[in-house]
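ok so for the tutorial part 2 we go from a plain amino acid sequence to predicted structure tokens. step 1 is just haveing the sequence, like this:
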Amino acid sequence: MSLDLSAWTSPQRGALFVVTGASGTGKTTLVKEALSTVPGIGWSVSATTRGPRTGEVDGRDYHFVSREDFEAKVAAGELLEWAEVYGNYYGTLRAPVDAALARGESILLEIDVQGARQVRAAAPEAVLIFVLPPSVDVLEGRLRGRATDDAATIARRVAEARQQLEGVSEFDYVVVNDVLASAHHRFQAVLVAELLRRERHPELVSQFAG
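step 2 — the prediction. this is what the tokens look like for a chain of 210 residues:
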């Protein structure tokens, strides 16, 4: 049974969702489906110091900034989370996220455990969701089954996956991606439940509570 959101009441203040899961857990698939299904949830556009690739548009795909500008934003506390990957900085700007939440829109971030920790420190109200595999053995089987990767890459991915899984106890919700259709429902149920929290609907509550 799918979620019926036809009579949706938008919250007055949105939620900041942080989704994490090791490579191979299917978190990206769950996130994409939720973005197209649950009303009022959007994707955060990251800032980066790498140059735009062919077809990429500033403000749509990334906010492209200089290294100096990025470092200045870090120093000023203007990022919810950031990391350096292969010599380039990537991060989530605080201002557009805060503006969206104030409008009643919700934001979903798909980042790793380290990034989730940064967001929790910067925005304690963030809702952290960890996508789990049915078991570690199943996850390793998925990673090893990727025929396009060489042995060294697979070994690195397995080690990174195990490291990510160790952070699961720090999250608010866990969603096991065993059967994909069921996992979609469970993941979206978490999002909807959080958006229906009483404190996100003060005007609606006041109509009945006096």
